[in-house]
Amino acid sequence: MSAIRLLVLGAVRQHGRTHGYQVRSDLELWGAHEWSNAKPGSIYHALKAMAKQGLLIAHDTAPSEAGGPPRTEYELTPDGEEEYFRLLRHALSAHDEKTDVLTAGVGFLTDLPRAEAIALLRQRIASLEEWREEIRRHWTPAEGEDWGHIAEIMGLWIHTAETGGEWTRGLIARLEAGAYEMAGEQVDIPSAK
Q1: Are 74 and 11 in contact (CB under 8 A)?
Q2: Residues 80-86: what's their mean pLDDT?
Q3: What does the buried/exposed string (b/e) look like for 40-57 if buried means 16 or more CB atoms within 10 Å of the residue's CB?
Q4: What is the pTM of this model?
Q5: DSSP secondary structure string, 134-191?
Q6: Residue in 87, 160, 171 with CA at minimum distance from that of residue 128
Q7: Alpha helix locations (H) across 32-72?
Q8: Angle made by CA atoms 143, 149, 153, in degrees to the nearest 5
Q9: For 103-150, what is each residue's pLDDT tens digit?
């Protein structure tokens, strides 16, 4: 999975209807151009491609008052909304994606109800634990075998599974303790009297 689809759909969704420059600005503000493939060209390409795929509606707007060309504004279609949530759920539950996918998922975590986010993260832990055990069963040198430096790869994988699980457990604990305003929740704002 590519993080760019999730990032672009999520950025458009946050605005309801927006143009490519705003999506690009949002993603740059989040630093996504540093930790993912969300470069300007890929953002505009993704917007156009997802409009062709029926995930976004492209609206041409009037030319800018400064004399520039008309901007295209985008909004999610029902299929785009469905795809966004499919990608988000996958990003939070999968253990075998690149870090940018998980990072994008965490960036949109609050778009899910709390219980669902926790359940997805628990799926991630189960997948990490299963992967760790798979490595130990099938990719660990038998007693007396010397795999040389190649054994370091298996050590890296086990370490990655264990630290990924530790981080995920911490996020679950914070969510269970009420951290962040999640979808469907409202924070009570005291009224001025």
Answers
A1: no
A2: 98
A3: eebbbebbeebbeeebbe
A4: 0.88
A5: HHHHHSSPPTT---GGGHHHHHHHHHHHHHHHHHHHHHHHHHHTT-SPPTT-----PP
A6: 160
A7: 32-35, 40-52
A8: 85
A9: 999 999 999 999 999 999 999 999 999 999 999 888 877 888 888 898
